[in-house]
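Example record for the data management plan.
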Amino acid sequence: AADKIRLIPQDFFAELCEQIIQHLNHKIPGINTAELCQRIQTSGVDINIGDLAKVANTLSFLFSTAARNNLSTEELVTSLGSGISTLPKHALQVIRHVWNEQGKAIAVSEDARTTATVGQFVDMKWKLGVAMSSDTCRSLKYPYVTVTLTVADPSGQITDKSFEMTIPQFKNFSRQFKEMASVLETV
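Corresponding structural encoding:
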C-alpha cells in the first residue's frame, strides 16, 4: 500500500484520511472511493479504483487498530516511520495531523464499531420500465422495476447493487418495507 500512497497527492490523501476518520466516527456511512478515484485521475495521477480501495482499507485498519490500542500521535507516527516499506513524508504528516485532531474521538467510538460486521444501507433508487421487444420476441410489453441500493460495507467502501423485479415481486418487496416501518414505529 505504501507504493500506492506515494502516487496520491497530499490534498487527496488528506481528504481520504478525513473521510475514513469520519466513517470510523459514524459521521458518514462510508468512503466513496469511486468518486475520489475519478477526481485523482482527473488531476493526472494514474491510479485505479482497486488500488485506492486497498489504500482506504489499509488506512481504516491502521486508524481503528491505533484507536483500539490507544496510541498517541507520536506512537502512531513512530511505528509507521519504522516499518519495512516506510510511508512518504507527506503521508506521515497528514496521518499525524488527522490523528492529532480526531484520533481520540475514534478511541471512544471504536467499541461500538467492533460490533458492526455487516454493511450499512445508504440510499435506494428505483425506476419503472417496460421491455417493449427483444431479438427473440417481437412484442413483450413486460413491466419491471429496477432497484439500485447504495451500501457501505464494514470497511466503508460504498457500492451500488442493482437488481430487477417483476411487478408482483416489487409489490411484495414494498409490503415488506411497510411491515418493517410499522414495526419500527412501535419501538
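Summary line stored alongside the record: The beta strands are 120-131, 142-152, 158-166.
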